[in-house]
Description:
It is a single chain. The protein contains five helices and 16 strands. The protein is an alpha+beta fold. The chain has one domain (8-304): 2,3-Dihydroxybiphenyl 1,2-Dioxygenase, domain 1 (Roll), CATH 3.10.180. The longest helix is centred in the last third of the chain and has 14 residues, at 227-240. Residues 7-132, 153-271 form the VOC domain. This is Glyoxalase family protein.
Amino acid sequence: xxxxxxxxxxxxxxxxxxxxxxxxxxxxxxxxxxxxxxxxxxxxxxxxxxxxxxxxxxxxxxxxxxxxxxxxxxxxxxxxxxxxxxxxxxxxxxxxxxxxxxxxxxxxxxxxxxxxxxxxxxxxxxxxxxxxxxxxxxxxxxxxxxxxxxxxxxxxxxxxxxxxxxxxxxxxxxxxxxxxxxxxxxxxxxxxxxxxxxxxxxxxxxxxxxxxxxxxxxxxxxxxxxxxxxxxxxxxxxxxxxxxxxxxxxxxxxxxxxxxxxxxxxxxxxxxxxxxxxxxxxxxxxxxxxxxxxxxxxxxxxxxxxxxx
Length: 309
C-alpha cells in the first residue's frame, strides 16, 4: 500500500466560456484566480486555475474553456460531484448568496453526517459545499466573502462508476481507507491528509457511460510532496499492472497520468514547485503566462484569447 498520497491536488474540468467561468469562481464563489495560462496541447485555449491565496494543493480548481464545446452528458466513468469545504453553519449564507446570483440546482442533503448544499456551475457542473467542523486551512480573504464562511478548499470528489470494486481496491492501494458504505455510496479517506482527503465511490450499474463536454471533469489529481515520492508511486502503479505516463512538466507541478478501471483519469501531481515559480504570491493570476514551448506564439495567442478581468 502506498503512503505518499495525501489527498487531492487539483480537479480539472471543461467549460464553454472563459469569462463566464472566471466570473463564477472569482465573483460568486470568491476564490482567487491563481494562474492565467494556456492549455499545453492547445495554446489557443486558456487554462485557468482558482484556489486559495497561494494555490495550495487541495484547493485548486482548474478549467480548460473551449469555445463552442458541446455540453457534457453525465454518466458513469467520471467524477460526479466536486465538493468544497466550508465552516459549520455556513450553508445558510451560501444558499442565500448562490440564489441571489441565479445559481441553479440548489438543494440540501445530509451525507455521512455532513450537511451539504448542492448547486450547478455555469455548464451544469455538479458541485456541493460540505460543512466541516475545524478545517484549519486559511481561505483567500479578498474574494468578497466573509472569512467566517469562506471556502477552505476541496472536501472530496465522488466517482460515478458502473462497478465500484476494482476502483475501490485501487484507492485502498493508493493509501485510502474504507470509512463506511451507505446505500450505493462507499466513502474512503486518507488519514492525516491535506484536508482534501475524501473520495466517495457511487456504484451505478444501470447508468450509461458519460459523454465528455462542457461541465465534465477531465481529470482528478492527487497530491504527493515531491518528485521522489511521485517516482515511487509511478513504479508501484506500473508494478501493479497500470499503464502510467512518463513524468510531464506542467510548470507548476510535475504530473503522471493513468486511467482507472472505472474509466476516470487519475493524475498524481507534486506539491513542488508551486504557482509562485513565475509570479510572486501578491500578483498570482494577473498576467498571462505562456509555457516555454509556446512562447514564440505569444502575440498570436493574445489575439485569439478573449479578455477576462
